[in-house]
Amino acid sequence: MEINIAGLKKYYSEKIILDINYLCIEKGTVTGLIGPNGSGKTTLLKIISGLDKDFIGTIKYDSELLNEDIYKKMTLVTQKPYLFRRKAYENIEYPLKIRETDKRIRKQKVEEIMKRFEIGDLRDKKGHLLSGGESQKVSLARALVFEPELLLLDEPTSNIDPESMKIMEREILRFNKEIKGTVLIVTHNIEQARRVCNNIIHLECGKVVY
Ligand SMILES: Nc1ncnc2c1ncn2[C@@H]1O[C@H](COP(=O)(O)OP(=O)(O)OP(=O)(O)O)[C@@H](O)[C@H]1O
Ligand SMILES: [Mg+2]
């Protein structure tokens, strides 16, 4: 899939927050979205993922305008991830459950992703009791487990230690290479952007700067 944004404007009250003439997020790439606090990065991800439908302009997913079926093919990992008050295992299993994946396959996939993320020790911990970094790891695992077409990541490693950072970046790249998933990642870490991204978009005051 490819995302094409044209004539996007987003206002809060009278204030313009996003003003993007044209932007393309190419299929099969890892695109970095960087810019200062308040430049509109989170707002853009919310709009693409369907959390915010109050905008002017057109956003196409391949040749189709965003719609409910398309939203199901993507997932957003938010800046402060929300986890259910259930075990980490059940949180990760959830996207497969709602897609009615067979029970045996579900177990296999959750076990595999927990192993890849080295988070087996978190299996029975309740979502709301996890630390900031633990929540981010579980949330990324939950997003990757159902192999979405488009993965939207809002500062996914902001609370992550260096060792775990390597694991998460590795898994993001694996998703891109092996599953051919497209990734749009917000980060303040320029080194990270250089390590994982094919392209970088700079946002300033809601505008793309080149
Ligand atoms: N619900 C809202 N109501 C009013 N203003 C909002 C709302 N949400 C965000 N804003 C404003 O929109 C602007 C863009 O916010 P946004 O969260 O997209 O920035 P960001 O680039 O993600 O910043 P950060 O790097 O701090 O996460 C900010 O000025 C923010 O105060
Ligand atoms: Mg933000």
Provide structural commentary:
With 210 residues, the protein is of the alpha/beta class. The protein has a single domain (3-209), classed as Rossmann fold (3-Layer(aba) Sandwich). Helices cover 36% and strands 27% of the residues. The chain is built from seven helices and ten strands. It has helices at 41-49, 68-71, 88-98, 103-117, 132-144, 162-178, 190-196; strands at residues 3-12, 15-25, 30-34, 56-61, 64-65, 74-77, 150-154, 182-186, 199-204, 207-209. The strands form two sheets. The protein has a six-stranded mixed beta sheet with strand order 6-7-8-3-9-10, sandwiched between helices. Strands 2-1-4-5 form a four-stranded antiparallel beta sheet, covered by helices on one side. A hairpin with a 2-residue loop joins strand 4 (56-61) and strand 5. Helix 4 packs across helix 5.
List keywords for this structure.
single chain, 210 residues, alpha/beta, 10 strands, 27% strand
